[in-house]
């Protein structure tokens, strides 16, 4: 049976495994067993109601794992795919039981256990009544069942502070190692050659140097890094991975930084190999892997600018004559001479 992805405008198809790039097909939750989760997935897919609804479900309705936080599919923390319109991920809903309510529940259970020691019919009926009351009234704080975004502004500030703290500690430890003389000459040479990093460029006294290399500010770079790699594991699939490239020892932050330098300034592969102190083959392998992975993570996000942005950069003549214009579709015709003979035209 051919498997198709029901997510947004995704065209993943099991007949073309080379285009899946390691992704899997995750079956849709069944409406009869988990209706709430099924409705959440329908909302995230953002397909027209006539194409995707509860009545349209079969056992062959799937969503490919490209749209989850990892290529392995849903996790306990993020059980739903990202929103096809906004690209947001939502964590699993939490249930909180207060200590006072927990103690009441424990007292009720203790009464039930003490009552069960009596073998009389009345005690057995009381036990059934208490058990029914306990199971039919679960202690749930509905006000805490809220959906959380992947990261908020406060989370980003906290991550930036942690990164800065780790950088300072790393610099301090490196200085101690140099002072004690426990680093060999070869290691010192490598240390000097690997100073072209995202952290070192962000600390440069040259104004906007990091933005010059990447097109992003350092804080936005960290936000992008957290969004692309929320866990410590490397999700990138390298097609031409070799043993001598040592990609596993190349940090993910450096891989993303090198790719943005290549994308922003079109730096040559040999130039990047010299700057990052790696082999030329490693540069090509990393750039191809990061480009394909970023397409999977960012391809479903909306990139159309807001109407206020479009109106703000619109020429004054257009603002006067066409104030509500948001897009212009145009084509250009180029006139060329052609012979009358059809044979000569071909």
From TrEMBL:
<dbReference type="InterPro" id="IPR027805">
    <property type="entry name" value="Transposase_HTH_dom"/>
</dbReference>
<feature type="coiled-coil region">
    <location>
        <begin position="156"/>
        <end position="183"/>
    </location>
</feature>
<keyword id="KW-0479">Metal-binding</keyword>
<dbReference type="Pfam" id="PF13613">
    <property type="entry name" value="HTH_Tnp_4"/>
</dbReference>
<keyword id="KW-0863">Zinc-finger</keyword>
<keyword id="KW-0238">DNA-binding</keyword>
<protein>
    <recommendedName>
        <fullName>THAP-type domain-containing protein</fullName>
    </recommendedName>
</protein>
<keyword id="KW-0175">Coiled coil</keyword>
<keyword id="KW-0862">Zinc</keyword>
<feature type="region of interest" description="Disordered">
    <location>
        <begin position="103"/>
        <end position="124"/>
    </location>
</feature>
<dbReference type="GO" id="GO:0003677">
    <property type="term" value="F:DNA binding"/>
</dbReference>
<feature type="domain" description="THAP-type">
    <location>
        <begin position="1"/>
        <end position="98"/>
    </location>
</feature>
<dbReference type="Pfam" id="PF05485">
    <property type="entry name" value="THAP"/>
</dbReference>
<dbReference type="InterPro" id="IPR006612">
    <property type="entry name" value="THAP_Znf"/>
</dbReference>
<dbReference type="GO" id="GO:0008270">
    <property type="term" value="F:zinc ion binding"/>
</dbReference>
